[in-house]
Amino acid sequence: MITVTITQEHIRTTIAAYLDRYPEDERALEAVLGLIDGVGDLTSRKTLPGHITAGAVLVGADGRVLHILHNATGKWLLPGGHLESSDETLLRAAGRELAEETGIPPHLVTPEGETPLHIDIHPIDANPAKDETAHQHFDFRFLFRTAAGIGELQAEEVSDAAWRAADTLHDEKLGRRLAQAMS
């Protein structure tokens, strides 16, 4: 089993900062906070009923948002994924995933802060090929900006990437927050 450097205390602190900014999400995150104390290591992709992932909302110079075509799901998603042992913070995990999947070098991307723009809880279908049952992802999504173009995609996970208008985001709450952050 991989041990991730991100601690439960860091997760709690990140959630507390998030709830200071977005108190309306407190009820939705009660389950995550309860799991921290109950199941223990939410950083492991084997933890059920769910675990933490880190995502990036990357806004280009023209205000469009980068989406990737994820191979496993066949869906257009925001860059992101599971935590790794080298990740020291959730923000750095999101930045690592962004760089890996899109090929955009980290020095060409600027994070907008240490607090997530959005924490999304969504179901993940079972994946027998990876010996994974259906579960949930607690996706900590951070806002980044760049003037760079798309680099070499991570072919194992991503088959395409595209800049899309911010108002095409499927999550209304994330769309509202992004609009506020960009104004």
TrEMBL record:
Claim: Hydrolase is one of the keywords in the record: yes
Name of the protein: NUDIX hydrolase
Natural source organism: Streptomyces inusitatus
Molecular function GO terms recorded: hydrolase activity
Classification via Pfam families: NUDIX
Database matches in CDD domains: NUDIX_Hydrolase
Domain called Nudix hydrolase: residue spans: 49-183
Source taxon at top rank: Bacteria
Recorded family membership: Belongs to the Nudix hydrolase family.
Entry keywords, A to Z: Hydrolase
